[in-house]
Amino acid sequence: MKVVLQRVSCAQVCIDQAVVGQIGTGVLLLLGVAPEDDEAAADWLVEKVLALRIFPKPDAESATTTMQLGLEDIAGQALVVSQFTLFADVAKGRRPSFSGAAAPEFANHLYEYFVRKLSARVSVQTGRFGADMQVTSTNDGPITLLLEKT
Protein backbone atom coordinates (compact mmCIF):
# COMPACT_ATOMS: atom_id res chain seq x y z
CA MET A 1 0.00 0.00 0.00
CA LYS A 2 1.05 3.53 -0.67
CA VAL A 3 -0.23 6.81 0.70
CA VAL A 4 0.69 10.25 -0.53
CA LEU A 5 0.05 12.46 2.49
CA GLN A 6 -0.28 16.20 2.21
CA ARG A 7 -0.71 18.47 5.20
CA VAL A 8 -3.53 20.80 4.16
CA SER A 9 -5.38 23.82 5.44
CA CYS A 10 -8.37 22.66 3.35
CA ALA A 11 -9.23 20.05 0.73
CA GLN A 12 -12.25 18.81 -1.15
CA VAL A 13 -13.27 16.21 -3.68
CA CYS A 14 -16.01 16.74 -6.25
CA ILE A 15 -17.86 14.33 -8.52
CA ASP A 16 -19.95 15.74 -11.37
CA GLN A 17 -19.44 19.24 -9.93
CA ALA A 18 -20.89 18.24 -6.54
CA VAL A 19 -18.76 18.28 -3.39
CA VAL A 20 -18.75 14.78 -1.87
CA GLY A 21 -16.00 15.29 0.73
CA GLN A 22 -14.49 18.38 2.30
CA ILE A 23 -12.14 19.06 5.22
CA GLY A 24 -10.40 21.93 6.95
CA THR A 25 -7.03 21.56 8.68
CA GLY A 26 -5.66 18.06 8.41
CA VAL A 27 -4.35 15.66 5.79
CA LEU A 28 -5.25 14.73 2.24
CA LEU A 29 -4.47 11.03 1.76
CA LEU A 30 -4.18 9.55 -1.72
CA LEU A 31 -4.33 5.79 -1.14
CA GLY A 32 -3.15 3.09 -3.55
CA VAL A 33 -3.49 -0.66 -3.05
CA ALA A 34 -1.31 -3.42 -4.52
CA PRO A 35 -2.39 -7.05 -5.03
CA GLU A 36 -0.18 -8.32 -2.19
CA ASP A 37 -1.52 -5.86 0.38
CA ASP A 38 -3.57 -6.91 3.38
CA GLU A 39 -5.34 -5.50 6.43
CA ALA A 40 -2.08 -5.55 8.42
CA ALA A 41 -0.56 -3.14 5.88
CA ALA A 42 -3.62 -0.89 6.19
CA ASP A 43 -3.36 -0.99 9.99
CA TRP A 44 0.31 -0.01 9.78
CA LEU A 45 -0.47 2.93 7.49
CA VAL A 46 -3.32 4.15 9.70
CA GLU A 47 -1.01 4.14 12.71
CA LYS A 48 1.75 5.88 10.74
CA VAL A 49 -0.61 8.62 9.51
CA LEU A 50 -1.82 9.23 13.06
CA ALA A 51 1.64 9.09 14.65
CA LEU A 52 3.44 11.48 12.30
CA ARG A 53 4.25 14.72 14.03
CA ILE A 54 3.77 17.10 11.12
CA PHE A 55 1.69 19.89 12.63
CA PRO A 56 3.22 22.96 14.24
CA LYS A 57 3.17 23.74 17.91
CA PRO A 58 3.86 27.40 18.52
CA ASP A 59 6.94 27.92 20.64
CA ALA A 60 5.95 30.56 23.16
CA GLU A 61 9.56 31.52 23.82
CA SER A 62 10.81 32.04 20.28
CA ALA A 63 7.91 32.91 17.94
CA THR A 64 8.90 29.95 15.72
CA THR A 65 6.93 26.82 15.05
CA THR A 66 8.12 23.26 15.04
CA MET A 67 6.45 20.09 13.88
CA GLN A 68 5.55 18.49 17.21
CA LEU A 69 1.90 17.50 16.94
CA GLY A 70 0.05 14.67 15.23
CA LEU A 71 -3.33 14.65 13.52
CA GLU A 72 -5.18 13.56 16.67
CA ASP A 73 -3.39 16.19 18.78
CA ILE A 74 -4.86 18.99 16.69
CA ALA A 75 -8.27 17.30 16.21
CA GLY A 76 -7.49 17.41 12.49
CA GLN A 77 -9.46 15.84 9.69
CA ALA A 78 -8.56 13.47 6.88
CA LEU A 79 -9.78 13.33 3.28
CA VAL A 80 -9.07 9.88 1.82
CA VAL A 81 -9.14 9.44 -1.96
CA SER A 82 -8.51 6.15 -3.77
CA GLN A 83 -5.59 6.49 -6.18
CA PHE A 84 -4.69 3.36 -8.16
CA THR A 85 -2.33 5.43 -10.32
CA LEU A 86 0.20 5.39 -7.45
CA PHE A 87 1.14 1.97 -8.79
CA ALA A 88 1.66 3.11 -12.37
CA ASP A 89 4.71 1.77 -14.21
CA VAL A 90 6.08 4.34 -16.63
CA ALA A 91 9.40 2.63 -17.37
CA LYS A 92 8.47 1.69 -20.94
CA GLY A 93 6.62 3.53 -23.63
CA ARG A 94 4.42 6.58 -23.24
CA ARG A 95 1.33 5.06 -21.69
CA PRO A 96 1.43 4.07 -18.00
CA SER A 97 0.81 0.45 -17.10
CA PHE A 98 -1.35 -0.15 -14.05
CA SER A 99 -0.64 -3.86 -13.69
CA GLY A 100 0.92 -3.16 -10.28
CA ALA A 101 -2.41 -1.97 -8.85
CA ALA A 102 -4.82 -4.33 -7.11
CA ALA A 103 -8.03 -5.46 -8.80
CA PRO A 104 -10.89 -3.02 -8.07
CA GLU A 105 -12.93 -5.31 -5.80
CA PHE A 106 -9.92 -6.16 -3.62
CA ALA A 107 -8.63 -2.58 -3.62
CA ASN A 108 -12.05 -1.25 -2.61
CA HIS A 109 -12.19 -3.71 0.31
CA LEU A 110 -8.84 -2.46 1.68
CA TYR A 111 -9.72 1.18 0.93
CA GLU A 112 -12.93 0.85 2.95
CA TYR A 113 -11.07 -1.00 5.72
CA PHE A 114 -8.46 1.79 5.90
CA VAL A 115 -11.21 4.43 6.06
CA ARG A 116 -13.07 2.56 8.85
CA LYS A 117 -9.90 2.19 10.93
CA LEU A 118 -8.92 5.84 10.48
CA SER A 119 -12.50 7.01 11.15
CA ALA A 120 -12.38 5.36 14.57
CA ARG A 121 -9.76 7.94 15.61
CA VAL A 122 -10.30 11.13 13.55
CA SER A 123 -12.94 12.78 11.40
CA VAL A 124 -12.73 11.35 7.87
CA GLN A 125 -14.27 12.38 4.57
CA THR A 126 -13.83 10.42 1.34
CA GLY A 127 -14.22 10.50 -2.39
CA ARG A 128 -16.02 7.67 -4.16
CA PHE A 129 -13.99 4.61 -5.09
CA GLY A 130 -13.59 4.26 -8.85
CA ALA A 131 -15.28 7.57 -9.69
CA ASP A 132 -13.85 10.35 -11.84
CA MET A 133 -13.03 12.88 -9.12
CA GLN A 134 -11.69 16.40 -9.01
CA VAL A 135 -9.54 16.94 -5.93
CA THR A 136 -8.50 20.39 -4.77
CA SER A 137 -6.38 21.26 -1.79
CA THR A 138 -4.26 23.93 -0.19
CA ASN A 139 -1.01 22.23 0.78
CA ASP A 140 0.18 23.71 4.07
CA GLY A 141 3.93 24.01 4.41
CA PRO A 142 4.17 22.52 1.86
CA ILE A 143 4.36 19.14 3.56
CA THR A 144 4.04 16.12 1.25
CA LEU A 145 5.16 12.64 2.29
CA LEU A 146 5.11 9.24 0.62
CA LEU A 147 4.25 6.42 3.03
CA GLU A 148 4.66 2.89 1.82
CA LYS A 149 4.17 -0.49 3.47
CA THR A 150 5.85 -3.15 1.36
Describe this structure in words.
The protein has 150 residues and is an alpha/beta fold. Helices cover 19% and strands 41% of the residues. The chain has one domain: 3-Layer(bba) Sandwich (D-tyrosyl-trna(Tyr) Deacylase, Chain: A). The protein is globular.
Give a short overview.
The protein has two helices and eight strands. The protein has helices spanning 39-51, 104-119, and strands at 2-15, 18-23, 26-32, 55-58, 65-69, 77-82, 123-126, 134-148. It starts with a strand and ends with a strand.
Structural class: alpha/beta
What is the gyration radius calculated from CA atoms? 16 Å
Alpha plus pi helix count: 2
> What is the tally of beta strands?
8
Main sheet: strands, sense, barrel: 6 strands, mixed
Number of separate structural domains:
1
Which helices and strands occur, and which strands form pairs?
Layout lengths: L1 E14 L2 E6 L2 E7 L6 H13 L3 E4 L6 E5 L7 E6 L21 H16 L3 E4 L7 E15 L2
Parallel strand pairs: 3-6, 6-7
Antiparallel strand pairs: 1-2, 1-3, 1-8, 4-5
Helix pairs in contact: 1-2
Structural key phrases:
D-tyrosyl-trna(Tyr) Deacylase, Chain: A; 8 strands; single chain; two-stranded antiparallel ribbon; 2 helices; alpha/beta; six-stranded mixed β-sheet; 150 residues
